[in-house]
Amino acid sequence: MIVDKMKKREPSAKNKNVTIDIPVGKWAKCDNCKEIIYKDVLKENLSICPNCGHYFRMHINKRLKLIIDDGTYKRFDINIETTNPLELEEYPKKLKSLREKTGLQEAVACGTGKIKGEEIVICIMDSGFLMGSMGVVVGEKITYAIEQAIEKKLPLVIFSVSGGARMQEGIISLMQMAKTTAALTKLDKAGLLYISVLTDPTYGGVTASFASLGDIILAEPGAMIGFAGQRVISQTIGETLPEGFQTSEFLLEHGFIDKIVERKDLKDTIYKLIQFHKEGK
Amino acid sequence: MEQKKEDSGEAIAKSMFEMARLKVPIISIVIGEGSSGGALAIAIANKVFMLENSIYSILSPEGFSSILWKDSSKTKEAAEKMKLTAKDLYELNVIDKIIKEPNGDEEESFRKISQNLKKEIKSVISEMNDNSLEEIVEDRYLKFRNMGDFINI
Protein backbone atom coordinates (compact mmCIF):
# COMPACT_ATOMS: atom_id res chain seq x y z
CA MET A 1 0.00 0.00 0.00
CA ILE A 2 1.10 3.47 -0.78
CA VAL A 3 0.24 4.57 2.74
CA ASP A 4 2.85 2.21 4.12
CA LYS A 5 5.43 3.70 1.86
CA MET A 6 4.54 7.19 3.03
CA LYS A 7 4.91 6.28 6.68
CA LYS A 8 7.65 8.21 8.30
CA ARG A 9 10.72 6.13 8.51
CA GLU A 10 11.71 5.17 11.99
CA PRO A 11 15.30 6.00 12.75
CA SER A 12 17.35 2.85 12.69
CA ALA A 13 18.26 1.38 16.01
CA LYS A 14 21.86 2.16 15.31
CA ASN A 15 21.27 5.93 15.00
CA LYS A 16 18.48 6.27 17.50
CA ASN A 17 20.39 7.08 20.63
CA VAL A 18 23.51 8.52 19.17
CA THR A 19 24.01 12.17 19.88
CA ILE A 20 26.73 13.93 18.00
CA ASP A 21 28.80 16.31 20.02
CA ILE A 22 28.70 19.58 18.07
CA PRO A 23 30.47 22.51 19.72
CA VAL A 24 27.97 25.35 20.09
CA GLY A 25 28.47 28.33 17.75
CA LYS A 26 31.06 26.57 15.58
CA TRP A 27 28.73 25.50 12.80
CA ALA A 28 26.39 27.18 10.36
CA LYS A 29 23.68 25.72 8.17
CA CYS A 30 23.37 26.78 4.53
CA ASP A 31 19.85 28.11 3.80
CA ASN A 32 20.08 26.85 0.26
CA CYS A 33 21.58 23.33 0.33
CA LYS A 34 21.10 22.72 4.08
CA GLU A 35 24.71 21.58 4.39
CA ILE A 36 26.24 22.01 7.83
CA ILE A 37 29.45 24.00 7.48
CA TYR A 38 32.25 24.60 9.91
CA LYS A 39 32.27 28.35 10.56
CA ASP A 40 36.03 28.70 10.09
CA VAL A 41 35.69 27.16 6.62
CA LEU A 42 32.85 29.54 5.85
CA LYS A 43 34.94 32.49 7.00
CA GLU A 44 37.84 31.43 4.81
CA ASN A 45 35.44 31.22 1.87
CA LEU A 46 34.15 34.85 2.26
CA SER A 47 30.89 33.60 3.86
CA ILE A 48 29.98 31.65 0.74
CA CYS A 49 28.77 28.05 1.07
CA PRO A 50 31.64 25.81 -0.13
CA ASN A 51 29.08 23.17 -1.13
CA CYS A 52 26.57 25.10 -3.30
CA GLY A 53 27.97 28.62 -3.67
CA HIS A 54 25.12 30.29 -1.73
CA TYR A 55 26.03 33.74 -0.39
CA PHE A 56 25.55 34.13 3.38
CA ARG A 57 24.72 37.61 4.68
CA MET A 58 27.72 39.44 6.08
CA HIS A 59 28.26 41.23 9.37
CA ILE A 60 29.40 44.84 8.94
CA ASN A 61 32.86 44.04 10.32
CA LYS A 62 33.40 41.19 7.87
CA ARG A 63 32.26 43.35 4.97
CA LEU A 64 34.60 46.14 6.07
CA LYS A 65 37.50 43.70 6.20
CA LEU A 66 36.63 42.47 2.71
CA ILE A 67 36.38 45.92 1.10
CA ILE A 68 38.47 48.41 3.06
CA ASP A 69 42.27 48.38 3.44
CA ASP A 70 43.33 47.21 6.91
CA GLY A 71 43.44 49.94 9.51
CA THR A 72 42.13 52.72 7.27
CA TYR A 73 38.46 52.79 8.33
CA LYS A 74 37.46 55.78 10.42
CA ARG A 75 33.85 55.80 11.52
CA PHE A 76 32.02 59.13 11.49
CA ASP A 77 31.55 60.60 14.91
CA ILE A 78 27.79 60.59 14.81
CA ASN A 79 26.08 58.92 17.76
CA ILE A 80 22.33 59.22 17.73
CA GLU A 81 19.21 57.31 18.63
CA THR A 82 15.52 57.42 17.82
CA THR A 83 13.00 59.39 19.88
CA ASN A 84 10.58 56.45 19.45
CA PRO A 85 8.01 58.63 17.66
CA LEU A 86 5.16 56.10 17.84
CA GLU A 87 5.80 55.61 21.56
CA LEU A 88 5.88 51.83 21.20
CA GLU A 89 6.61 50.16 24.48
CA GLU A 90 8.68 47.23 23.20
CA TYR A 91 10.76 49.13 20.62
CA PRO A 92 13.45 50.71 22.87
CA LYS A 93 13.89 47.36 24.66
CA LYS A 94 14.26 45.59 21.33
CA LEU A 95 16.93 48.10 20.23
CA LYS A 96 18.82 47.70 23.48
CA SER A 97 18.93 43.92 23.26
CA LEU A 98 19.97 44.07 19.60
CA ARG A 99 22.84 46.39 20.44
CA GLU A 100 24.08 43.92 23.02
CA LYS A 101 23.57 40.91 20.76
CA THR A 102 25.14 42.29 17.58
CA GLY A 103 27.72 44.67 18.96
CA LEU A 104 26.32 47.23 16.52
CA GLN A 105 24.88 50.62 17.34
CA GLU A 106 22.36 50.49 14.50
CA ALA A 107 21.67 48.89 11.12
CA VAL A 108 24.32 50.90 9.27
CA ALA A 109 27.96 51.87 9.77
CA CYS A 110 29.36 54.92 7.97
CA GLY A 111 32.82 56.38 7.71
CA THR A 112 35.81 56.93 5.48
CA GLY A 113 38.29 54.27 4.43
CA LYS A 114 40.65 53.31 1.65
CA ILE A 115 40.24 50.87 -1.21
CA LYS A 116 43.72 49.99 -2.48
CA GLY A 117 44.83 53.42 -1.33
CA GLU A 118 41.86 55.34 -2.77
CA GLU A 119 39.94 57.19 -0.08
CA ILE A 120 36.16 56.82 -0.15
CA VAL A 121 33.10 57.38 2.03
CA ILE A 122 31.57 54.02 2.83
CA CYS A 123 28.24 52.93 4.32
CA ILE A 124 27.54 49.30 5.13
CA MET A 125 24.17 48.01 6.27
CA ASP A 126 23.61 44.90 8.40
CA SER A 127 20.63 42.58 8.17
CA GLY A 128 21.25 41.36 11.72
CA PHE A 129 19.89 44.62 13.11
CA LEU A 130 16.09 44.65 12.68
CA MET A 131 16.52 43.32 9.14
CA GLY A 132 18.60 46.34 8.17
CA SER A 133 15.49 48.49 8.31
CA MET A 134 15.73 52.27 7.89
CA GLY A 135 14.43 54.51 10.65
CA VAL A 136 15.66 57.97 11.57
CA VAL A 137 19.12 56.79 12.66
CA VAL A 138 19.87 54.94 9.42
CA GLY A 139 18.39 57.80 7.35
CA GLU A 140 20.37 60.45 9.20
CA LYS A 141 23.64 58.49 9.07
CA ILE A 142 23.35 57.82 5.33
CA THR A 143 22.50 61.50 4.74
CA TYR A 144 25.43 62.62 6.88
CA ALA A 145 27.72 60.29 4.91
CA ILE A 146 26.49 61.78 1.62
CA GLU A 147 27.18 65.29 2.97
CA GLN A 148 30.65 64.22 4.08
CA ALA A 149 31.36 62.84 0.61
CA ILE A 150 30.41 66.24 -0.83
CA GLU A 151 32.49 68.14 1.70
CA LYS A 152 35.56 65.93 1.29
CA LYS A 153 35.00 65.50 -2.48
CA LEU A 154 35.18 61.71 -2.18
CA PRO A 155 33.43 58.88 -4.02
CA LEU A 156 30.57 57.27 -2.10
CA VAL A 157 29.99 53.51 -1.83
CA ILE A 158 26.91 52.11 -0.09
CA PHE A 159 26.37 48.40 0.57
CA SER A 160 22.64 47.84 1.00
CA VAL A 161 20.86 45.01 2.75
CA SER A 162 17.45 45.85 4.12
CA GLY A 163 13.85 44.85 4.59
CA GLY A 164 12.90 48.49 3.89
CA ALA A 165 11.59 51.38 5.97
CA ARG A 166 11.35 50.60 9.69
CA MET A 167 7.74 50.01 10.72
CA GLN A 168 8.42 50.88 14.37
CA GLU A 169 8.98 54.56 13.47
CA GLY A 170 6.00 54.86 11.14
CA ILE A 171 5.85 57.84 8.79
CA ILE A 172 9.18 59.16 10.08
CA SER A 173 10.86 56.11 8.50
CA LEU A 174 9.07 56.81 5.23
CA MET A 175 10.45 60.37 5.30
CA GLN A 176 14.01 59.02 5.48
CA MET A 177 13.59 57.85 1.89
CA ALA A 178 12.97 61.47 0.91
CA LYS A 179 15.82 62.74 3.08
CA THR A 180 18.48 60.40 1.65
CA THR A 181 17.22 60.92 -1.91
CA ALA A 182 17.27 64.71 -1.60
CA ALA A 183 20.85 64.52 -0.28
CA LEU A 184 21.84 62.47 -3.34
CA THR A 185 20.66 65.27 -5.66
CA LYS A 186 23.39 67.41 -4.05
CA LEU A 187 26.02 64.70 -4.54
CA ASP A 188 24.93 64.47 -8.16
CA LYS A 189 25.21 68.22 -8.60
CA ALA A 190 28.70 68.12 -7.10
CA GLY A 191 29.64 65.61 -9.83
CA LEU A 192 30.79 62.93 -7.42
CA LEU A 193 30.65 59.20 -8.02
CA TYR A 194 28.16 57.06 -6.12
CA ILE A 195 28.41 53.28 -6.39
CA SER A 196 25.47 51.37 -4.93
CA VAL A 197 26.05 47.70 -4.11
CA LEU A 198 22.94 45.59 -3.58
CA THR A 199 23.26 42.48 -1.45
CA ASP A 200 20.75 39.88 -0.37
CA PRO A 201 18.06 40.96 0.46
CA THR A 202 17.41 44.62 -0.50
CA TYR A 203 13.74 45.58 -0.34
CA GLY A 204 11.13 48.24 0.34
CA GLY A 205 12.02 51.82 1.11
CA VAL A 206 15.76 51.23 0.69
CA THR A 207 15.29 49.89 -2.85
CA ALA A 208 12.86 52.76 -3.48
CA SER A 209 15.42 55.40 -2.45
CA PHE A 210 19.22 55.55 -2.26
CA ALA A 211 19.92 51.93 -3.27
CA SER A 212 18.40 52.48 -6.74
CA LEU A 213 20.07 55.84 -7.31
CA GLY A 214 23.72 54.86 -7.79
CA ASP A 215 25.58 56.22 -10.79
CA ILE A 216 26.66 52.61 -11.00
CA ILE A 217 24.63 49.82 -9.42
CA LEU A 218 26.35 46.53 -8.64
CA ALA A 219 24.81 43.42 -7.09
CA GLU A 220 26.06 40.19 -5.60
CA PRO A 221 25.04 37.00 -7.45
CA GLY A 222 21.68 35.52 -6.47
CA ALA A 223 20.66 38.50 -4.31
CA MET A 224 16.93 39.12 -3.92
CA ILE A 225 16.11 42.73 -4.72
CA GLY A 226 12.72 44.40 -4.99
CA PHE A 227 10.22 46.87 -3.59
CA ALA A 228 7.23 44.76 -2.53
CA GLY A 229 7.62 41.09 -1.63
CA GLN A 230 6.86 38.48 -4.28
CA ARG A 231 3.78 37.11 -2.52
CA VAL A 232 2.22 40.58 -2.27
CA ILE A 233 2.84 41.34 -5.96
CA SER A 234 1.58 37.96 -7.10
CA GLN A 235 -1.60 38.33 -5.03
CA THR A 236 -2.17 41.93 -6.16
CA ILE A 237 -1.85 41.32 -9.89
CA GLY A 238 -3.36 37.83 -9.68
CA GLU A 239 -0.62 36.23 -11.74
CA THR A 240 2.26 33.87 -11.30
CA LEU A 241 5.55 35.72 -11.42
CA PRO A 242 8.24 34.84 -13.94
CA GLU A 243 11.05 32.47 -13.03
CA GLY A 244 13.88 34.17 -11.19
CA PHE A 245 11.82 37.32 -10.52
CA GLN A 246 13.63 39.81 -8.26
CA THR A 247 16.99 38.03 -8.42
CA SER A 248 20.01 40.12 -9.35
CA GLU A 249 20.33 38.08 -12.58
CA PHE A 250 16.74 38.98 -13.54
CA LEU A 251 17.35 42.65 -12.75
CA LEU A 252 20.54 42.70 -14.82
CA GLU A 253 18.64 41.25 -17.77
CA HIS A 254 16.00 43.97 -17.41
CA GLY A 255 18.50 46.79 -17.14
CA PHE A 256 17.97 47.75 -13.50
CA ILE A 257 21.53 47.03 -12.43
CA ASP A 258 24.82 47.41 -14.25
CA LYS A 259 26.82 44.40 -13.21
CA ILE A 260 26.76 41.32 -11.03
CA VAL A 261 30.03 40.99 -9.18
CA GLU A 262 31.26 38.00 -7.21
CA ARG A 263 32.18 38.74 -3.64
CA LYS A 264 35.87 37.99 -4.18
CA ASP A 265 36.00 40.57 -7.01
CA LEU A 266 34.04 43.39 -5.33
CA LYS A 267 36.97 45.34 -3.94
CA ASP A 268 38.87 45.19 -7.21
CA THR A 269 35.82 46.15 -9.28
CA ILE A 270 34.99 49.14 -7.07
CA TYR A 271 38.63 50.24 -7.19
CA LYS A 272 38.68 50.04 -10.99
CA LEU A 273 35.42 51.99 -11.28
CA ILE A 274 36.83 54.75 -9.08
CA GLN A 275 40.00 54.86 -11.17
CA PHE A 276 38.01 54.94 -14.37
CA HIS A 277 35.88 57.79 -13.07
CA LYS A 278 38.97 59.79 -12.12
CA GLU A 279 40.41 59.43 -15.60
CA GLY A 280 37.18 60.69 -17.09
CA LYS A 281 37.40 64.00 -15.27
CA MET B 1 1.19 45.38 -15.16
CA GLU B 2 4.58 45.24 -16.89
CA GLN B 3 5.55 48.07 -14.60
CA LYS B 4 4.70 46.00 -11.57
CA LYS B 5 6.55 42.98 -12.94
CA GLU B 6 9.69 45.02 -13.24
CA ASP B 7 9.05 46.43 -9.78
CA SER B 8 8.24 49.96 -8.77
CA GLY B 9 11.15 50.66 -6.38
CA GLU B 10 13.34 52.38 -8.94
CA ALA B 11 10.39 54.42 -10.27
CA ILE B 12 9.67 55.77 -6.78
CA ALA B 13 13.33 56.62 -6.19
CA LYS B 14 13.63 58.42 -9.54
CA SER B 15 10.39 60.33 -9.02
CA MET B 16 11.55 61.60 -5.61
CA PHE B 17 14.97 62.47 -7.02
CA GLU B 18 13.52 64.58 -9.83
CA MET B 19 10.99 66.28 -7.55
CA ALA B 20 13.73 67.13 -5.06
CA ARG B 21 15.59 69.20 -7.65
CA LEU B 22 12.70 70.72 -9.60
CA LYS B 23 13.06 74.51 -9.83
CA VAL B 24 9.41 75.44 -9.32
CA PRO B 25 7.32 75.54 -6.14
CA ILE B 26 5.62 72.18 -5.50
CA ILE B 27 2.50 71.67 -3.38
CA SER B 28 1.26 68.15 -2.59
CA ILE B 29 -2.17 67.59 -1.09
CA VAL B 30 -3.24 64.34 0.51
CA ILE B 31 -6.96 64.03 -0.26
CA GLY B 32 -7.73 60.45 0.73
CA GLU B 33 -5.48 57.55 1.67
CA GLY B 34 -1.81 58.29 1.04
CA SER B 35 0.34 55.30 1.78
CA SER B 36 3.94 54.11 1.44
CA GLY B 37 6.34 54.83 -1.41
CA GLY B 38 3.63 55.50 -3.96
CA ALA B 39 2.35 58.50 -2.00
CA LEU B 40 5.81 59.74 -1.05
CA ALA B 41 6.91 59.54 -4.69
CA ILE B 42 4.60 62.47 -5.48
CA ALA B 43 4.94 64.31 -2.18
CA ILE B 44 8.47 65.78 -2.28
CA ALA B 45 6.94 69.22 -2.12
CA ASN B 46 7.70 72.64 -0.64
CA LYS B 47 4.35 72.44 1.12
CA VAL B 48 2.37 69.31 1.98
CA PHE B 49 -1.30 69.76 2.89
CA MET B 50 -3.78 67.18 4.12
CA LEU B 51 -7.53 67.25 4.10
CA GLU B 52 -8.75 67.06 7.68
CA ASN B 53 -10.04 63.49 7.39
CA SER B 54 -7.39 62.04 5.08
CA ILE B 55 -4.60 59.70 6.19
CA TYR B 56 -0.92 59.46 5.26
CA SER B 57 1.16 56.53 6.44
CA ILE B 58 4.13 54.24 5.94
CA LEU B 59 1.84 51.33 5.09
CA SER B 60 -1.80 50.30 5.43
CA PRO B 61 -2.82 49.47 9.02
CA GLU B 62 -3.33 45.87 7.82
CA GLY B 63 0.26 45.69 6.59
CA PHE B 64 1.62 47.45 9.66
CA SER B 65 -0.07 45.06 12.07
CA SER B 66 0.96 42.07 10.00
CA ILE B 67 4.64 43.07 9.95
CA LEU B 68 4.90 44.33 13.52
CA TRP B 69 2.63 41.95 15.36
CA LYS B 70 2.45 39.06 12.84
CA ASP B 71 -1.31 39.47 12.91
CA SER B 72 -3.13 41.38 10.16
CA SER B 73 -6.38 41.53 12.12
CA LYS B 74 -5.19 44.12 14.66
CA THR B 75 -5.97 46.93 12.23
CA LYS B 76 -7.79 49.15 14.70
CA GLU B 77 -4.93 49.03 17.19
CA ALA B 78 -2.44 49.63 14.37
CA ALA B 79 -4.37 52.61 13.02
CA GLU B 80 -4.38 54.15 16.49
CA LYS B 81 -0.65 53.56 17.03
CA MET B 82 0.59 54.63 13.59
CA LYS B 83 -0.02 58.40 13.84
CA LEU B 84 -1.57 58.64 10.42
CA THR B 85 -4.17 61.38 10.87
CA ALA B 86 -3.71 64.93 9.61
CA LYS B 87 -3.53 66.16 13.21
CA ASP B 88 -0.82 63.63 14.17
CA LEU B 89 1.26 64.43 11.12
CA TYR B 90 0.97 68.15 11.68
CA GLU B 91 2.29 67.65 15.20
CA LEU B 92 5.16 65.51 13.86
CA ASN B 93 6.06 68.34 11.41
CA VAL B 94 5.55 66.02 8.47
CA ILE B 95 2.85 68.23 6.92
CA ASP B 96 2.41 72.00 6.79
CA LYS B 97 -1.31 72.57 6.88
CA ILE B 98 -4.62 70.87 7.59
CA ILE B 99 -7.45 71.77 5.22
CA LYS B 100 -10.74 71.78 7.12
CA GLU B 101 -13.56 69.60 5.85
CA PRO B 102 -16.82 71.16 7.01
CA ASN B 103 -19.66 68.79 7.88
CA GLY B 104 -23.10 68.92 6.35
CA ASP B 105 -24.27 68.96 2.77
CA GLU B 106 -21.76 67.11 0.59
CA GLU B 107 -21.86 69.48 -2.33
CA GLU B 108 -21.63 72.52 -0.12
CA SER B 109 -18.76 70.95 1.82
CA PHE B 110 -16.88 70.10 -1.38
CA ARG B 111 -17.31 73.67 -2.60
CA LYS B 112 -15.94 75.07 0.65
CA ILE B 113 -12.94 72.70 0.62
CA SER B 114 -12.14 73.64 -2.97
CA GLN B 115 -12.36 77.35 -2.23
CA ASN B 116 -10.16 76.94 0.79
CA LEU B 117 -7.59 74.93 -1.17
CA LYS B 118 -7.56 77.50 -3.93
CA LYS B 119 -6.85 80.22 -1.41
CA GLU B 120 -4.00 78.23 0.21
CA ILE B 121 -2.40 77.28 -3.11
CA LYS B 122 -2.50 80.89 -4.27
CA SER B 123 -0.96 82.09 -1.04
CA VAL B 124 1.97 79.61 -1.28
CA ILE B 125 2.63 80.55 -4.88
CA SER B 126 2.61 84.27 -4.20
CA GLU B 127 4.77 83.74 -1.13
CA MET B 128 7.33 81.77 -3.15
CA ASN B 129 7.24 84.13 -6.09
CA ASP B 130 9.76 86.31 -4.31
CA ASN B 131 12.25 83.44 -4.05
CA SER B 132 14.92 82.61 -6.57
CA LEU B 133 14.86 79.18 -8.26
CA GLU B 134 17.75 78.08 -6.04
CA GLU B 135 15.91 79.23 -2.93
CA ILE B 136 12.85 77.22 -3.93
CA VAL B 137 14.96 74.06 -4.30
CA GLU B 138 16.84 74.77 -1.06
CA ASP B 139 13.59 75.38 0.86
CA ARG B 140 12.32 71.96 -0.23
CA TYR B 141 15.68 70.36 0.50
CA LEU B 142 15.84 71.67 4.06
CA LYS B 143 12.28 70.59 4.76
CA PHE B 144 13.17 66.93 4.05
CA ARG B 145 16.74 67.16 5.35
CA ASN B 146 15.30 67.88 8.80
CA MET B 147 12.65 65.14 8.79
CA GLY B 148 12.65 63.15 12.03
CA ASP B 149 13.97 64.09 15.43
CA PHE B 150 16.73 62.09 17.10
CA ILE B 151 18.68 62.18 20.33
CA ASN B 152 22.44 62.66 20.47
CA ILE B 153 24.05 60.05 22.69
Q: Can you tell me about this structure?
A:
The complex is a heterodimer of chains A (281) and B (153). Chain A is built from eleven helices and ten strands. In chain A, a hairpin with a 2-residue loop joins strand 5 and strand 6 (118-125). Chain A has two domains: 25-56, no CATH class; 57-279, 2-enoyl-CoA Hydratase, Chain A, domain 1. Chain A has 281 residues and is of the alpha/beta class. Helix content of chain B is 52%, strand content 14%. Chain B has helices spanning 2-5, 9-20, 36-40, 61-69, 75-81, 86-91, 106-128, 133-145, and strands at 27-30, 33-35, 47-51, 55-57, 97-99, 150-152. By secondary structure, chain B is α/β, with parallel strands linked by helices. In chain B, the strands form two sheets. A three-stranded parallel beta sheet of chain B has the order 1-3-5. Chain B has a two-stranded parallel ribbon with strand order 2-4. Chain B is built from eight helices and six strands, in the order H-H-E-E-H-E-E-H-H-H-E-H-H-E. Classes of the chains: A alpha/beta (281), B alpha/beta (153). Strand 4 (80-82) of chain A pairs antiparallel with strand 6 of chain B, so a sheet runs across the interface.
What's the structural domain tally of chain B?
1
Largest sheet of chain B: 3 strands, parallel
Q: Give the tally of β-strands of chain A.
A: 10
What separation lies between the terminal Cα atoms of chain B?
47 Å
Helix-strand pattern of chain A: HHEEHHEEHEEHEHEHEHHEH
Main sheet attributes: strand count, strand direction, barrel closure of chain A: 7 strands, mixed
**CATH homologous superfamily name of chain B?**
2-enoyl-CoA Hydratase, Chain A, domain 1
Which pair has the most extensive contact? A-B, 56 and 46 residues
Would you tell me the structural class of the helices and strands of chain B? alpha/beta
CATH T-level topology of chain B: 2-enoyl-CoA Hydratase, Chain A, domain 1
**Which radius of gyration of chain A do the C-alpha atoms yield?**
21 Å
Q: Give the rounded overall mean pLDDT of chain B.
A: 93
SS element count, helices of chain B: 8
Quaternary structure annotation: heterodimer
